[in-house]
Amino acid sequence: MALTREQMAQRVAQELQDGFYVNLGIGIPTLVANYVPQGMEVMLQSENGLLGMGAFPTEAELDADMINAGKQTVTARIGASIFDSAESFAMIRGGHVDLTVLGAFEVDVHGNIASWMIPGKLVKGMGGAMDLVAGADNIIVTMTHASKNGESKLLPQCQLPLTGAGCIKRVLTDLAYLEIEDGAFILKERAPGVSVKTIVSLTAGKLIVPDQVPEMRFDIQ
Q1: Is 221 contained in some domain?
Q2: CATH code, domain carrying 94
Q3: Which end of the chain is more exposed for a tag (fewer CB within 10 A), N or C?
Q4: Which family does it belong to (predicted)?
């Protein structure tokens, strides 16, 4: 079965490492804050000016003035810092973020990403995504594998305006975890209960399938 948004966040959280500074984009990536492994020291950075973002607040913790880049209310962990967005983007552009997690509309076999504009539709806009893909070497894209109409989002070439070119190496969808190398998607893991055949049928870009493709290992909620 396809992963839920929460399950996708859990899988991304497995890529966190102790001491990492991590920027979480709008959408599914924000949920990763709820699944940081216990005992691991990770500093979550929000481009609007917060370093040390915690999990989403309970009703008792809710503070309408404490928000992330997507205008969702958040908490601040002990030791957090608050500053203006210019300093935040200096951190991003200076290459001081260890891991960036972003959503996307499309990704292609060349590592290009389109995440900010769909012609004729109202979308929030670029935000900090262009800076993040330019300033980070370690990026994970989280997205659904296909549109609601069953059209693949993993393409030979992005059709939408690009956010960044040649910058994406890893993609986690609701069906699979893939890496991008030498002009192809490489299937590394599949969601529990999802067949390789299904993934192949919904991947428009060149896909390399190893002899053995393990299922993702984590507790399905």
Answers
A1: no
A2: 3.40.1080.10
A3: C
A4: Belongs to the 3-oxoacid CoA-transferase subunit B family.
C-beta neighbour count of 170 within 10 angstroms: 19
- Of 6, 15, 41, 47, the catalytic one is 47
Segment holding 142, helix H or strand E: strand 139-143
Q: Is 47 a catalytic residue?
A: yes
Tokens of 208: 């390399």
Higher pLDDT, 219 or 102: 102
Domain residue limits at 201: 5-208
> What is the token pair recorded at 11?
């899988």
Total number of domains in the chain: 1
Question: Would you place residue 176 in the very low, low, confident or very high pLDDT band (cuts 50, 70, 90)?
Answer: very high
Mean pLDDT of 142-152: 96
CA distances from 139 to 21, 29, 39, 71, 83 (A): 12, 11, 23, 22, 24
pTM for the complete prediction? 0.91
